[in-house]
Specification:
Layout lengths: L2 H17 L15 H8 L4 H5 L5 E12 L3 E8 L2 E8 H4 L1 H8 L6 E10 L5 E12 L11 H10 L1 H7 L1 H22 L4 E2 L5 E2 L11 E4 L4 E5 L4 H9 L4 E9 L11 E10 L3 H20 L3 E4 L2 E4 L6 E3 H9 L11 H10 L10 H13 L7 E4 L11 E2 L2 E5 L1 E6 L2 E8 L4 H14 L4 H5 L3 H8 L5 E7 H8 L23
Parallel strand pairs: 3-5, 6-10, 14-15
Antiparallel strand pairs: 1-2, 1-4, 2-3, 4-5, 7-9, 8-9, 10-11, 11-20, 12-13, 15-18, 16-17, 18-19, 19-20
């Protein structure tokens, strides 16, 4: 049946309901039971046991299916916990209420009161003694999703996706549980949950293109934060030795299956520890999440088996280039700057004038090593040039006490022993600004307030950010970041009504 015909039929039913004096959007029905509560409490009761049950149940939800037999019908009612079957009989409901039911459609919200019984097929069912229309759906629900166009519609009209796809609802329930466990893990270790500004006068804590906005009353430009790092460190300087924030960051950059302009990070800082301590904490945290949410360290992501049980390998970036990148002694790009340049160009990578050896090595690493890092692994000792906020290694000043966690060929977390020397930090900020062009605008984006705070003294501290969306992708077997964000950013499409 054409959608226009379905819409016409619905409009006629709506007109008929109004003529019957039925309120289309009432708000006076009290829900006392969910589908799951009923199924858990009485799911193993026999038909004979249920006959002696005098309890009346009150539930509500969206009608997802109707099987109409004339003077009787079965419907499936879906609430936040699942679905339950409802049986409607004209002789029990009465002519008026059964007439109301005949005007209902899949997609409408309905309140039901009645007892329980088992059908001949053994399904636990509510026998409706009373029904009440709670909200009329003006549009038919989609029966199923298929093809690229409908995949895009799923993201644009997430409410429909949630309504008709149980697996999608399960993904977002699981996302919530993952975040809950991560927060509990830190709270149990005496971390304090905090909030830092989302609008900042200077975008700091990461290298990324920011979104710019304007505050009229203050007459000043502000930026949506690209990272909370410099504010969280201010709190550490103030004596809050263990802090974390579940934060939303905004980066005015590209979109992909792993990137969304607005994304969620769990960022935390712990005084009197090092990046090595945080690697241990990270594998314990993610391992605990896997056990509590999924029930096992062994998971599968897009057909690939992963083992999340601690302890995960720790390999330096230079070792990884040799171990995974095909570097041998006769072509040692790790030690030879010119060889590194040549290798990068042979890989089709752009080598900019003045680019350092460390920066080139990281480019090669990202190209030839990252895709091979499938099982959880920590890559450590990143070059100073690409780690402006990390502490140098005492025995190797060209690299830092920094790690990145990789799984299935993608970065999941980034952590390091924090640079707490204000003079070194100032020099690195200014060198970074000079490399980006050295303009007055670049210099003005140096957070002098943070440098001043650092001059008051920050204890030895390690900090880390975990990409929550990417971690949720892996733990829910979701191929795209858009599958784990309720409302991902989409290209403008004027013809779609949202």
């Amino acid at each position: 049946m054409e959608e226009s015909e379905l819409l016409r039929q619905r409009r006629e039913k709506i007109k008929s309901l109004k003529e019957m004096g039925v309120e289309l959007f009432p708000n006076d029905f009290k829900v006392e039971h969910t589908s799951l509560e009923i199924l858990q409490r009485y799911g193993d009761w026999s038909a004979e046991d249920l006959q002696g049950l005098e309890e009346i149940f009150s539930c509500a939800g969206r009608i997802m299916a109707i099987r109409d037999f004339g003077r009787a019908a079965f419907i499936h009612l879906q609430d936040r916990k699942g679905r339950i079957q409802v049986y409607l009989r004209e002789d029990l409901l009465g002519e008026e209420l059964f007439g109301l039911f005949k005007k209902l459609d899949v997609g409408d919200f309905l309140g039901v009161r009645g007892g329980l019984f088992r059908t001949k097929t053994g399904e636990l069912t509510v026998e409706a003694a009373l029904i009440k229309l709670l909200a009329k759906s003006f549009h038919p629900l989609p029966e199923k999703w298929h093809g690229l166009t409908d995949v895009e519609t799923r993201y644009r009209q997430r409410y429909l996706d949630l309504a008709v796809n149980p697996k999608v609802r399960e993904t977002f329930y699981r996302r919530s549980e993952i975040i809950k466990v991560m927060k509990e893990f830190l709270l149990q270790r005496d971390f304090l949950e905090v909030e830092t500004p989302m609008m900042q006068p200077i975008p700091g804590g990461a290298v990324a293109r920011p979104f710019k906005t304007y505050h009229k009353t203050l007459d000043m430009e502000l930026y949506l934060r690209i990272a909370p790092e410099l504010y969280l460190k201010r709190l550490v300087i103030g004596g809050l030795e263990r802090v974390f924030e579940l934060n939303r960051n905004f980066r005015n950059e590209g979109l992909s299956t792993q990137h969304n302009p607005e994304f969620t990070m769990l960022e935390f800082y712990q005084s009197y520890c090092t990046y090595e301590d945080l690697m241990t904490l990270t594998e314990e945290m993610i391992g605990e999440v896997a056990l509590r949410v999924l029930g096992s360290y062994e998971i599968t992501y897009q057909g690939v088996g992963l083992n999340l049980a601690p302890h995960w390998p720790r390999v330096t970036l230079r070792e990884a280039l040799v171990q995974y990148g095909g570097v041998d002694n006769s072509h040692n790009i790790v030690e030879d700057y010119l060889l590194a340049q040549e290798r990068a160009r042979n890989l089709g990578l752009e080598v900019e004038e003045g680019e350092s050896h460390g920066e080139i090595l990281v480019k090669i690493f990202e190209e030839v090593v990252e895709p091979k890092l499938i099982q959880p692994i920590f890559i450590t000792e990143y070059p100073v040039e690409v780690s402006p906020l990390a502490r140098r290694k005492n025995d190797a000043q060209e690299v830092t006490e920094r790690f990145e966690l990789f799984m299935v060929g993608r970065e999941i977390a980034n952590g390091f022993s924090e640079l707490n020397n204000p003079e070194d930090q100032s020099e690195r900020f200014r060198a970074q600004a000079a490399k980006r062009g050295g303009t007055d605008e670049e210099i003005s984006l140096i957070d002098e307030g943070f440098l001043t705070a650092l001059e008051y003294g920050m204890p030895p501290t390690a900090g880390e950010g975990i990409g929550v969306d990417r971690l949720v992708m892996i733990l829910t077997d979701s191929p795209s970041i858009r599958d784990v964000i309720f409302f991902p950013q989409m290209r403008k499409k004027p013809d779609v009504s949202l």
